Amino acid sequence: MTNQELRQKIKHHNVLYYQENNPEITDAEYDELKKRATEIGVDTQVGCDPDRRFAKVRHAEPMLSLNNAYNQKDIEEFLARVKKSLNIGKLEIICELKIDGLSFSAVYEDGALIQAATRGNGSEGEDITSNIMTIEGFPKVLPGVKGRLEVRGEVYISNSDFIELNKNNDFANPRNAAAGSLRQLNPEVTASRPLKYFAYCLIGGTAVTQFEVLNRLEELGFCVNEHRFLAKNLDEMLQFYDKIYSKRCNLNYDIDGIVYKLNNLELHNRLGSTNTFPRWAIAHKFPAARGKTKLKRIIVQVGRTGLLTPVAELEAINVGGVLISRASLHNYDEIIRKDIREGDIVVVARAGDVIPHIVEVDRSSRLPNTPKFVFPKTCPECGSRVEKVDEEAAIRCSGVTCKAQLIERLKHFVSKEAFDITGFSDKHVESFHNLGLIEQISDIFTLEKQLSQFNLQEHHGWGKKSIANLLNSINSRRTISLDRFIHSLGIRFVGQHVAKLLANHYVSFENLMAKLSNNQVFHELLHIDGIGEKIAESISLFFSEQHNIEMLNELASHLKILPVDNNKRSAAISGKVVVFTGTLLTLSRAEAKKQAESLGAKVASDVSRSTDLLVVGDKPGSKYKKALTLGIKILNEKQWCEMIGLSV
Fold this sequence. Notes:
Layout: H1 3-19, H2 27-39, E1 56-58, E2 68-69, H3 72-86, E3 93-99, E4 102-109, E5 112-118, E6 124-126, H4 129-132, E7 148-156, H5 159-165, H6 174-182, H7 187-191, E8 196-203, H8 210-219, E9 228-231, H9 234-247, E10 255-262, H10 265-271, E11 281-285, E12 289-302, E13 308-319, E14 322-328, H11 332-338, E15 345-350, E16 357-361, E17 386-388, E18 395-397, H12 403-414, H13 426-434, H14 447-451, H15 464-475, E19 479-481, H16 482-488, H17 496-506, H18 509-516, H19 521-525, H20 533-544, H21 546-556, E20 560-562, H22 564-568, E21 577-581, H23 589-598, E22 602-603, E23 613-616, H24 622-630, E24 633-636, H25 637-643
Parallel strand pairs: 2-11, 19-20, 21-22, 21-23, 23-24
Antiparallel strand pairs: 1-6, 3-9, 3-10, 4-5, 4-7, 7-8, 10-11, 12-13, 12-15, 13-14, 15-16, 17-18
Helix pairs in contact: 1-2, 16-17
């Protein structure tokens, strides 16, 4: 792997972890990538760039990540390096728990909370002021405090709260649930989630040690973790590490290590930081939490591209404070390589990992004559023949009408990365398909008509208001940019990047359909920079199926698919932070938001100093007054439409 490939791979996983809250590798695997990058001198970004849906917040001081240590030798080298740099023989080190949550910064002016943000890329984060105010017990006012203070900490969800919240298996783990809950456009959603926090950093004030900082935070009313220890040498540091490691399962929240910081804040200033981490602190990571349990059976799931993925169903086991009943087996080759069989006693690993995995099999406990697992030769969902893909570990279903593939494509279509239909969960997709209400993608946009002849309120979880909310959400997504439309189709190998390549090349939906619906499409696609034979073959296959062409034409009849030309006409708002307030007459707020985003703008829910434009409709609220106070440019609906080239 080249340095550039390693940098891009880490960037890819940063986006999945910090922005999408949907990692595809374990923390340990990610740490290994970062460790390799450090060893060969490859610079990598902290976190990832802020989500464009939120207003940006520039941190007064960078929010850096921590360098990692994995054993005693690493800690010894850290201490030796610090002592040499400072020319000091003895150090006081404060030991704190490394909470596995989402980092935040909260800024106070004269005791009033004025802004809160995520870490983002370290330099800029996402504005989450309204959301953090919903956390129970989070101070909104600091009585008697003058001047500017900045508090940093970690938001998390306790394991017991997570079990209650995750009854429908909507979240992978507590960290993902906390991150997704705090990064909501609607603060009411955040308020409904059981978020907690720990504060650990105070910028401003008169404290001269980190120990004093933690005490001062408690005095100000912040929640500070009770487990902290002031160590005077390596042995005391390691004793604290061992003590916490042995009791981590009883904490009721996830931690993945111990953070060691120099206690003297003046020494922090003398040591400074690199581009990615402070030189005065290090994180001593825990090894992957492991446990033994029985593998009850292996089931095979079918994805939207027909990929067959084996999953281990386990006797439930508490690993690292989280109850685990399933583990990924990745692919058939993994089962063969580790010789995993149904009924085996297996070692399951997790260390804040997104997907628990089986490390090894305890063969000494295997019963005699336990048969090897036989991978199905036909699709477990539709019965079609399965095929091994050349040069890949993948095995796929060959059926074009496979129900499992269709359901997964529908889930992808409504997901945040595609049409982003709020409130349309995976379980709703499955339920509506099973009820016969959605049999193909275009049925989503005729759901309102079908429900006029179907009493959905007879089914659990649906009332008049929830049905109306879902239909409103669907109707607000009838305008979409060409690249997002292409990505929403779930064509194999066509992610967001390739979708943009296709959109930029074909410009409009009509031209795309005309060009790709012919026999020469494969060779034409190869002339697009960035598209190789594998991608071209997949796209050609998709457009060679007549039922796909019919589906696309039917779907397009319900939508307004914006050509790429529209994006180019929007230079005036590209990159701008836009806020809408009041009732718009020519289009709904949701439609205006999607249109602005498709033209390159960043739509925020609240007015702040980073807001560039406020678009005012009928009966504007407090946002209008705040924009006047901050001197933000204000446009009425007509002016906005003229700016983006929309006829009124």
